[in-house]
Each structure stands twice: as structure tokens, then as C-alpha cells.
Design goal:
Chain B: Belongs to the binding-protein-dependent transport system permease family. CysTW subfamily. The complex is a heterodimer of chains A (293) and B (287). Chain A is mainly α and 293 residues long. In chain A, 79% of the residues lie in helices and 0% in strands. Chain B has a two-stranded antiparallel ribbon. The chains are: A mainly alpha (293), B mainly alpha (287).
Chain lengths: 293, 287
């Protein structure tokens, strides 16, 4: 009887402890952790909030509030150069995402296969574009394209120049690795027995892939594509060095303007870009949740 | 049906587009930079094909370059250290909340992370400018104005801001996987708070610390846009020197030599860091 009571008590205390265990054993006090969290989240959001508020400020210069206005947004929508830049950005991001997602997904499928002698090297090589600083990648691509075009002209008389397509090629080069890593994670969770079962039931590899595997790793592929799209839209450095004359994306256009000055119009562009990215994140999360449900 | 040889052949086939693309548009350009670094500069600014070590000799004698490299390294170290110190407790806080709150907290970190990075830099220009929000605020109390913009502090602030999510998310991923019962076990076995942290939690979250530090350090040391926009002419980092050599100075051969030295030092630093963190892990967890 005594033993049972003791055992029960032990279970009880264990049970009672198991939930707040983390709290009880936090290396620093709870209050310090909470304070740190409040501090970091404030730090993350104050600049963004200030930016959005100022995009509605009637003052043309300075940080003083002079009343609410939508003038800057009106000017923005009338600005044809920005419209062109946005369209260019979307074309680049769309094409490079399509290519990088296809190539990256294939690469992830290759990496999944065991007993392949090139696997380890390939896996390591895929991390290199993530580790090399983007400015080095950008200048090396500039050097490469320039030399290649000169050689093409000298050898076969083919006249090529940097343009939209050189930016797309370069964006694919840095996006492949990211797509492969993201798709690889979702492949790691894929149950191989499903594939074997389908094969045993007489499905061809092609059928197995499209009917069984692809629908199950679909969210991972979509996640990779979304990351690739965002990285491409976000990129400034590689775009800056690999674009041809007259090619302006949203980032290179905004860069040119903010180098010169601070203006309420740029506050407005920034706010819209912020709205777009927030919508994208929330939409992707919502989609994932719906798939899981 | 699934024999090893067809499986192998299929793997090569699937890997080939990535291999070809990266071979042509990642590896070949890097090899080209290596070759360029041994060439000269023609009078019209193009690359002169003339093998020599002149660029490297000039580079080692160039005091301005070493000062730039030192400034970049110093800024990147400060940024990495501060983000790590602030993010670890935050990730701990996030990982110990209920699953529902965790989701909200992660989302709240991701929104600034998905915001265009030029927008994030620009926000700091608005905040820290001579006539900016901070100086207005200080002016209310008859303080300031502070000259922050065009100084390393402005660059460091904006870099911390921009890189913070790259530190928080890997640390959170590492802490979320941690089995909290181990902390209790350590305490029951008589370990103090500090010992529990140092010998149980820290070694198991090292992969997150390593990943976060590299993800923050590499882009920071190679930054070009942040120092260009917020540092003005006073904060010259390696990225700015590189873009100058490949841009208006048009000395690609010299720029290539800078890239090579820079990449070598960077890879050396990463390997050293990997080695150091692994040693802590091995030392604390024998077996």
C-alpha cells in the first residue's frame, strides 16, 4: 500500500512537472526571456511600422507628421518606370523559378537514391552557391558572360549581349540549391514503401512518380518554388551585375532612387512591397495548413 | 524492375541538369575569376592576357585593402555575435511556448525575413538619417542630433536587423527538436543551471548555432548594398571594393585577385568555425 502511494505520488509529481519543466529549468529567469522577446520583436517591427506610417505623411521632407495623404500612392501608380521595373522583376522571378524548381526537384530525386557514387560530392557541391558571397558570384558571372560573348563573336560571329536572359540564368544558378534542399526535406519524409507497393501492383516508374510520389511531395516542391520566387524578387547584387543595358528590376530601380535621397514615394513603394510579401507568406502558410487538414 | 544499375543511371540523369547548369554558370565563372586574377589590365580597362603574379603582389602591399578586409571582418563578427546573443534566448522562449503560440511567433519572425532587403535597409535610412526619426525624437529632449548615418554603427544596426531572422530560425529549429526531459534529468542528477545549459542544452543545439552563425557571417562580410547605402564613403567593405574594381575602376584582374583572397579567407574561417564547434561538442559529450 505504502509503495503504491509512493509510486502514485512519484507519477503525480512527474506528471505535474512534465509540462512546466522547461519553465522551471530555464537557465535565465522567465522575465528576462520575456523581456528579450519583447525587445527583439519591437526591434523587428518598429522600422517597418515607421515606414508604413510615413508613406501616408503629407510632409515631403523630414520626419515631422503633417497630416494624412494618399498623394504618394497616386504618384506611384502614375510612375511608368516603376511599373516596367515591377513587370521585369516578375518575368525574371517567374522564369527562373520555373527552371530552378524543375532542375532542383530532379536533383533532389537523384540525391535520394542510395549507393550512387557521385552522391556525396554532388550533395556538398550544392551547398557552395549558398556559402559563396553573392557579390563574388555576381562579379564572376559578369566576367564569364563578357568573355563568353566575345568568344562567340570571334569564333562563330554570333552577336550576344547581356539582357534579361543573363539575369534569369544567374538567378537559376543560385536558386537550384535552395529548391533542392527544400524538396529534399519533404522527400526525406516520404514513405518509400508506397513506391514499392505501386511497383508491385504493376505501375510503371512514370506512373508511380506522377500518381503517388509527386502529389505527396507537392507541398515541398511548392515551398521550394515559393522560396526561389522570393529570393529572385529580393535579389539586388546578382541582378545589378548581370543585367544588360536598359534592364531595370524593382530592386535596381529602388536602389538607384534610395542612393540619391529619401522620399515619401519610396516609403509608398516599400509599404506595397511589404504588403505583397506579407500576403505571400500568409497565403503559403494557409495553403499548407489546408493541405494538412 | 528496380535494379541497382537502372537506379544509378536514373540518378545521373536526374542530377545532370543541375550539374550542367552549376558547372556552366557557377563553377566556370569562379574558375574564370581564378584565371583573371593572374592577368593584367589593358589601357582601355579590359583584361590583358599576360600571366603574372603582379595582382597578388600589389594586393599584399596594398594597406587600404587590408584595412577594408579588417573592417569587414570586424563588422561581421560584431553582427554575428550580437545576433547570436539576442537570438538564442529568443529561440528558447519561442520553443518553450505552446504549439499554437509558437506558430504565431515564428510567423512574426518570418514577415520581416520575407520583406525585400532593400526596403529593410531603406527603413534604417529613414530612422537614422540626420533629419530622421531618431534625431527628431532626441530633439524633443534637446539631445543630439547624432551623426549615425554614414558610420559603421548605422551599417551594423541595419545588418543586425536584416540578418536576425537567419539566426533565429536555425536556432529555433534546433531548440524545438530538443527533448526537454533531459534538462530535468540533468537537474535531478545535481547539475546547476549553468552546468545544465553548458553541458546538456548547448552541445545539442550546436548545429543550430553553427548554421545560424554561418548564415549571418557570410552575407555580412560580403555585403555591398548596406554599406553602400548607409555607410556612404566612410564605410568601405570588401563588397564595395569588389564592385568598384568591376565597375568604375574597371580593373577586373585586380578585382579577381581580391575575390580569390576573400573567398580563401572566408572558407578558412568557416572550416575553422566548424572545427571549433565540433571540438566543444566532442569535449562535452564523450562517446
Amino acid at each position: 500500500m505504502m509503495a503504491k502511494i509512493l509510486a502514485d505520488k512519484r507519477i503525480e509529481t512527474q506528471h505535474g512537472r512534465s509540462r512546466p519543466v522547461a519553465k522551471r529549468h530555464m537557465p535565465w529567469g522567465t522575465w528576462a526571456l520575456t523581456l528579450n522577446a519583447i525587445f527583439v520583436y519591437t526591434f523587428l517591427y518598429v522600422p517597418i511600422i515607421v515606414l508604413v506610417l510615413f508613406s501616408f505623411n503629407a510632409a515631403k521632407v523630414g520626419a515631422q507628421w503633417q497630416g494624412f495623404t494618399l498623394q504618394w500612392y497616386n504618384e506611384l501608380f502614375a510612375d511608368a518606370r516603376l511599373g516596367d521595373a515591377l513587370w521585369t522583376s516578375l518575368k525574371i522571378a517567374g522564369s527562373s523559378t520555373l527552371i530552378a524548381t524543375t532542375i532542383g526537384t530532379l536533383a533532389a530525386l537523384a540525391l535520394e537514391k542510395r549507393g550512387w557514387w557521385g552522391r556525396k560530392t554532388f550533395d556538398t557541391a550544392l551547398y557552395l552557391p549558398v556559402i559563396i558571397p553573392d557579390v563574388v558570384m555576381a562579379v564572376s558571372l559578369l566576367g564569364f558572360f563578357t568573355l563568353a560573348f566575345r568568344q562567340f563573336q570571334a569564333l562563330i560571329g554570333l552577336n550576344l549581349a547581356m539582357g534579361l536572359w543573363t539575369v534569369i540564368i544567374s538567378h537559376v544558378a543560385f536558386n537550384i540549391s535552395f529548391v533542392t534542399v527544400v524538396v529534399g526535406t519533404s522527400l526525406a519524409n516520404f514513405d518509400r514503401r508506397l513506391e514499392e507497393a505501386a511497383a508491385d501492383l504493376g505501375a510503371t516508374p512514370w506512373q508511380t512518380f506522377w500518381r503517388i510520389k509527386f502529389p505527396l511531395i507537392g507541398p515541398g516542391v511548392l515551398g521550394g518554388a515559393l522560396l526561389s520566387f522570393t529570393l529572385s524578387l529580393d535579389d539586388f547584387v546578382v541582378t545589378f551585375f548581370t543585367r544588360g543595358p536598359g534592364v531595370n528590376t524593382l530592386t535596381t530601380e529602388v536602389y538607384g532612387r534610395i542612393k540619391k535621397s529619401i522620399s515619401p514615394e519610396i516609403n509608398a513603394i516599400s509599404s506595397l512591397m511589404l504588403l505583397a510579401s506579407t500576403t505571400l507568406v500568409v497565403a503559403s502558410l494557409w495553403m499548407q495548413r489546408r493541405r494538412q487538414a | 524492375m528496380y535494379n541497382a544499375r537502372t537506379e544509378q543511371r536514373r540518378a545521373w540523369l536526374q542530377a545532370s541538369p543541375a550539374l550542367i547548369w552549376l558547372g556552366f554558370f557557377f563553377l566556370a565563372p569562379l574558375v574564370l575569376i581564378l584565371i583573371y586574377s593572374f592577368q593584367g589590365r589593358a589601357d582601355d580597362g579590359t583584361v590583358l592576357w599576360n600571366w603574372s603574379l603582379a595582382n597578388y603582389q600589389k594586393l599584399f602591399a596594398d594597406g587600404a585593402f587590408w584595412r577594408t578586409l579588417w573592417l569587414s571582418t570586424w563588422i561581421a563578427l560584431v553582427v554575428t555575435a550580437i545576433t547570436l546573443v539576442v537570438s538564442y534566448p529568443l529561440a528558447f522562449f519561442m520553443a518553450t511556448r505552446s504549439p499554437k503560440i509558437r506558430g504565431v511567433l515564428v510567423l512574426a519572425v518570418m514577415i520581416p525575413f520575407w520583406t525585400n532587403f532593400l526596403v529593410r535597409i531603406y527603413a534604417w535610412k529613414v530612422l537614422l538619417g540626420n533629419n530622421g526619426v531618431l534625431n527628431r525624437f532626441l530633439g524633443q529632449f534637446d539631445l543630439g542630433p547624432l551623426q549615425i548615418i554614414n558610420s559603421p554603427s548605422a551599417v551594423i544596426m541595419a545588418l543586425i536587423y536584416g540578418e536576425l531572422p537567419y539566426m533565429i530560425l536555425p536556432l529555433y529549429a534546433a531548440l524545438e527538436r530538443f527533448d526537454w526531459v533531459q534538462l530535468e534529468a540533468a537537474r535531478d542528477l545535481g547539475a546547476g543551471r549553468f552546468q545544465t545549459f553548458w553541458r546538456v542544452l548547448l552541445p545539442q543545439t550546436l548545429p543550430g548555432i553553427t548554421a545560424g552563425s554561418i548564415l549571418v557571417f557570410v552575407p555580412t562580410v560580403g555585403t555591398f548594398a548596406v554599406s553602400d547605402i548607409l555607410g556612404g564613403t566612410s564605410v568601405n567593405m570588401v563588397g564595395n571594393t569588389l564592385s568598384l574594381q568591376f565597375g568604375s575602376a574597371s580593373n577586373w584582374a585586380y578585382g579577381s585577385a581580391i575575390s580569390m583572397i576573400f573567398m580563401l579567407l572566408l572558407l578558412g574561417a568557416i572550416l575553422l568555425y566548424f572545427k571549433a564547434t565540433r571540438e566543444v561538442d566532442d569535449g562535452e559529450n564523450p562517446g
